[in-house]
């Protein structure tokens, strides 16, 4: 007696009565086994709770109860605000119609799903193969309509993207116009010191320009010393400015030496002083202006001249 009761209970789990006929419960899918089964409260009548109860009924194989729970969420108006919940409701309702042998209702729900998502497809590893084939047949019969939907959706996405970019650009332009403008004036001046007027490469050496400073120092020292030595030789050897006929060539050579080296000396001195002034230390000062600069104000307010072309 106990064994017979156990068998009766086991069979009652396998079959049940729906709308006066026997319906065999489908084997739970892998997706169903992975997902935790929600336990919504019967007192909670929110659309999300009713969707959870409809999903639970579908997972248990009670497709008639799933239809009764899911259809009011979609008709006469949609009560679900989240897109994923809306797609799930249409999918569960379509599969429930299909297992209830209501192919017209199942096709209507699948068509609605394809209208929302033209690339929607059932997973053959999770969903029943008969339902997958049924949906594929609907997709083949409505291929042109689905292509039109894809095209319209792509155009709408492009339009929305263009509108968003245009709104963003206008917002950025408006923010730039409304932003406070700050005006600063930068003044760069050269600061000269006593070292800039000292020869023999002193300014260059003080600035750390060792190569230029050394070249000027050696060049000016050699030319200056040569010029001074030749001049002293002439003055000491010929104190009266006269020289014997036999020493005319030597006197001319000495005179040319001190004149040439003297000229070279002063050329190097002038070049060194000019270089020191050009490389004088720069001082930069920045100050904030209370009003825009005159030239900037004039350029902002001046009208753009018209372009005239004559032939």
Describe the structure.
The chain is 63% helix and 8% strand. It is mainly alpha-helical and 311 residues long. The protein folds into two domains: 144 residues, Serine Threonine Protein Phosphatase 5, Tetratricopeptide repeat, CATH 1.25.40.10; 106 residues. The strands form two sheets. It has a two-stranded antiparallel sheet with strand order 1-2. The chain has a two-stranded antiparallel sheet with strand order 3-4. The longest helix has 36 residues.
Short description:
This protein is mainly α. It contains 12 helices and 4 strands, in the order H-E-E-H-H-H-H-H-H-H-E-H-H-H-E-H.
Write the layout of secondary structure elements.
Elements lengths: L1 H13 E4 L2 E4 L5 H5 L12 H13 L3 H12 L8 H17 L3 H14 L12 H13 L1 H36 L4 E9 L10 H5 L3 H28 L10 H31 L2 E9 L4 H8 L10
Antiparallel strand pairs: 1-2, 3-4
Supply Rg.
50 Å
Global mean pLDDT: 76
Molecular shape = rod-shaped
Multimeric organization: single chain
DSSP strand tally: 4
CATH superfamily of the largest domain: Tetratricopeptide repeat domain
Question: CATH architecture of the largest domain, please?
Answer: Alpha Horseshoe
Strand sequence of the main sheet, in spatial order?
1-2
Primary descriptors:
single chain; 311 residues; mainly alpha; Serine Threonine Protein Phosphatase 5, Tetratricopeptide repeat; 2 domains; two-stranded antiparallel ribbon; 8% strand; rod-shaped; disordered N terminus
